[in-house]
Design brief:
- The protein has 289 residues and is of the alpha+beta class.
- The protein has two domains: 74 residues, no CATH class; 193 residues, no CATH class.
- Helices cover 57% and strands 9% of the residues.
- The strands form two sheets. A four-stranded antiparallel β-sheet has the order 3-4-5-6. It has a two-stranded parallel ribbon with strand order 1-2.
- Helix 3 runs antiparallel to helix 4 and helix 11 runs antiparallel to helix 12.
């Protein structure tokens, strides 16, 4: 059988997924997978028209496998890209749960937050006052807040859910804050602390830190020293300095692994581990954080 089939032949092939002979089903699944993405619309249509829950389940699994393999390829491509745009990386992670999520929707929502901030922003203000403006808009006007009631919620790692619910964990709230701040041309970056993701304002020798999970609380290097001392950890340069967008996306994936683990979704936990694996390497200094 050739690798290209017309639509009717594809439909006939998909109909065999309801066969009771598992050897037939296995051969059919192999053939469907070999046809690649062009068969996905046929699978979706057949799922909608099917009244057989077994066939529907098998179709769902095949579609998910296609989507998962595509996501792995897109994450690798993102990792190898020159810019490693943070919002794109967060969107890719969200498509694991929401495969139809469009990047433009996420981008427009972040742009709206930027616009609301821009209306009140004062470029001439000193850095601490600029942070106060960001805090006022994001936490008071727009009502973003930490998700303390459901800290390990899967939605905390999904940028679309964070934007819609206006609740998130430390890293997701930091990401949104940083995306807006950088659009305001502020030198604000992510910092990978153990157990807590924070931001830093760093320009030349001028540097301070921002705890977005605590509604933008500003603190100093000495506070990080005390934090590490309480955790019985030795100071390390990576706990004080900006990390890369790749580091951030890796940490979001690690958080998601914990969320799926705590919710008892072992298959999804393992799949996220695979996604983390394809964008990790031996030089990752944050692997144990």
């Amino acid at each position: 059988m050739e690798n290209s089939l017309n639509v009717n032949e594809m439909k006939a092939l998909v109909s065999l997924l309801g066969d009771t002979d598992m050897e037939v089903v296995a051969l059919v699944e192999q053939k469907i997978i070999s046809l690649g993405d062009p068969i996905i619309p046929v699978l979706e249509q057949e799922w909608e028209q099917s009244f057989d829950p077994i066939s529907q389940k098998r179709i769902e699994e095949i579609i998910h496998n296609f989507q998962f393999e595509n996501l792995k390829k897109r994450l690798i491509s993102w990792k190898n890209s020159e810019n490693q745009e943070l919002l794109e990386g967060l969107w890719l992670i969200a498509t694991y749960q929401y495969p139809d999520l469009e990047f433009t929707k996420i981008k427009d929502l972040v742009q709206q937050i930027y616009y609301e901030t821009w209306l009140e922003f004062k470029p001439e203000a000193v850095p601490l006052d600029q942070i106060k403006i960001l805090n006022s808009v994001i936490f008071n006007k727009l009502k973003f807040s930490p998700n303390t009631k459901n800290f390990h919620s899967i939605g905390n790692s999904m940028v679309n859910i964070v934007l819609e619910s206006k609740k998130g964990n430390p890293i997701s709230l930091c990401c949104l804050y940083m995306l807006v701040a950088q659009r305001m041309k502020l030198p604000i970056y992510g910092v990978n602390l153990p157990n807590l993701f924070i931001l830093t304002y760093k320009q030349g020798r001028h540097q301070f830190y921002i705890n977005v999970f605590n509604k933008g609380l500003v603190f100093s290097k000495q506070d990080i020293d005390n934090y590490l001392k309480n955790l019985k950890l030795k100071p390390n340069e990576i706990f004080y300095q900006p990390c890369s967008n790749l580091d951030i996306v890796r940490r979001v994936l690690r958080n998601l692994i914990v969320s799926f683990e705590k919710s008892g979704q072992e298959e999804k936990e393992q799949e996220i581990r695979l996604l983390l694996e394809v964008i990790s390497d031996e030089t990752d200094p944050y692997a144990s954080i």
